[in-house]
From TrEMBL:
Homodimer. It is found in: Cytoplasm. Belongs to the class-II aminoacyl-tRNA synthetase family. One of its GO terms (cellular component) is cytoplasm. Gene3D superfamilies: Bira Bifunctional Protein, Domain 2 (3.30.930.10), Nucleic acid-binding proteins (2.40.50.140). GO terms for biological process: asparaginyl-tRNA aminoacylation. Residues 144-450 form the Aminoacyl-transfer RNA synthetases class-II family profile domain. PROSITE patterns: AA_TRNA_LIGASE_II. It comes from the Bacteria. This is Asparagine--tRNA ligase. The gene is asnS.
């Protein structure tokens, strides 16, 4: 039998049903198009696990109910062979809400040979090398469906809260977060350009035009980090609000995260169940979140060190590492907002605390269960003179930021915003050990393929 599809196979979208829509088609003859996920036999019965992207259904082929030709085709199927199957869906007699398909006919589009990911244990490097195929597994389907729900929830929340989507450039002329983590490239005759670290600076311009805006897209950090929390390319959503303060962002962040968690619990419980996620921990997530000043966080870390709970003693003035964030988050049953970090460890554009200028009006939202920072943001510097001074102090090219200074020349107001990494949020909600499974094709320090 040829491995290639015959020319006369029907490939249009008409008269075909998705597995996800079986409940509306019980007792009717339907045709599905998909792939063989797995198969087993029991005498004169073949049990085919068929997937079509919308779900997986067990197709039952009875030798006494189909032609010899159809039986032989079904018996010859191999893992991930592409097939078109006609039959009648019915509800499982002992499992309400679960459906099966009594198979009447079956056409092989391609009979696959030597599919590399077999039903056995494979090492993570092997699976990452075959990521283009690993995406077909039940686990990866569950994770990426949760990701899809997170993205939908993000857009629904912001769109319904009066925000305007105003996407920002991926190619930028200067750094936003720091010059050491930039991906650099030649930009025609204009010199160097960089892949964006954040859309935030441009968000400030659109917020001055529209009041409440957000951008949502890929961002890039050339960090030589191999931790379970880092990707070099990831997706970030960044709301920005004119006439807003740090306190406004804390309230927005807790409303935002609470909405996302509730939506995922409402619509993706089956996926979380497949991932063996303890949903009771997610059900505790509700606003308001604890507010923890940086000074208090440092005190907690110091006491934890003295009690032998942390190996290192944290010194005031530094930024938190993964062990510090994990310890702090473990003290609460929901995300905790750490605020007012030392200005020296935050970006040049952060507004200073008027009561303590050595502190920035900034915040990080730390997820529970050791997942670290999932939101970072704060209030932006309002003063033209002070921002110009900060640009000089950070040795940034003044000419690249003239447009940004214009926002303080013409109608400056208090304004604030934050960014949330989609992948870290998904890793937390799914209870994953590493962020590499939260995006279809992860980019990491030593991984650029497939």
């Amino acid at each position: 039998m040829s491995r290639d599809a015959p020319n006369d196979i029907e490939t249009t979208m008409t008269n075909h049903v998705r597995i996800a829509d079986f409940a509306a088609n019980l007792g009717q003859t339907v045709t599905i198009r998909g792939w063989l996920y797995n198969a087993r036999s029991s005498g004169k019965l073949l049990f085919l696990e068929i997937r079509d992207g919308s779900g997986i259904v067990q197709g039952i082929v009875s030798k006494n109910a189909v032609s010899e030709e159809v039986w032989n085709r079904a018996a010859a199927l191999t893992q991930e062979s592409s097939i078109i199957v006609t039959g009648m869906p019915r509800e499982h007699p002992k499992r309400p809400g679960v459906y099966e398909l009594d198979v009447h006919d079956l056409t092989i589009v391609q009979l696959t040979q030597d599919y590399p990911i077999t039903p056995k244990e494979h090492g993570i490097e092997f699976l990452m090398d075959h990521r283009h195929l690993w995406l077909r597994s039940k686990r990866q389907h569950a994770i990426l469906r949760v990701r899809h729900e997170v993205v939908r929830a993000v857009r629904d929340f912001l769109d319904n809260d009066g925000f305007i989507l105003a996407d920002t450039p991926i190619l930028t002329p200067a750094a936003c977060e720091g010059t050491t983590t930039l991906f650099e490239l030649d930009y025609f005759d204009d010199g160097k350009a960089y892949l964006t670290q954040s859309g935030q600076l441009y968000n400030e311009a659109t917020a001055a035009a529209f009041g409440k805006v957000y951008c949502f897209g890929p961002t890039f950090r050339a960090e030589k980090s191999k931790t379970r929390r880092h990707l070099t390319e990831f997706w970030m959503v960044e709301p920005e609000v004119a006439y807003a303060t740090l306190e406004d962002m804390m309230v927005l962040a807790e409303r935002f995260l609470s909405f996302i968690v509730a939506r995922v619990l409402e619509r993706r419980r089956e996926e979380l169940k497949l991932l063996e996620r303890d949903t009771s921990k997610l059900e505790a997530i509700a606003a308001p979140f604890p507010r923890l000043p940086y000074d208090e966080a440092v005190r907690m870390l110091h006491e934890a060190h003295l009690a032998g709970k942390l190996e290192h003693d944290f010194v005031w003035g530094g930024d938190f590492g993964a062990p510090d964030e994990t310890y702090l988050a473990q003290q609460f049953d929901r995300p905790v907002i750490v605020h007012r970090y030392p200005a020296q460890v935050k970006a040049f554009y952060m507004e200073e605390d008027p009561e303590r200028p050595e502190l920035a009006l900034c915040m990080d939202v730390l997820a529970p269960e050791g997942y670290g920072e999932i939101i970072g943001g704060g209030q932006r510097m309002q003063s033209y003179d002070r921002l110009a001074q900060r640009i000089a102090e950070h040795n940034l090219p003044r000419e690249a930021f003239e447009w940004y200074l214009d926002l303080r020349r013409y109608g400056t107001v208090p304004h604030a915003g934050f960014g949330m990494g989609i992948e870290r949020c998904v890793a937390w909600l799914c209870g994953l050990e590493h962020v590499r499974e939260t995006i279809p094709f992860p980019r990491m320090l030593y991984r650029l393929r497939p």
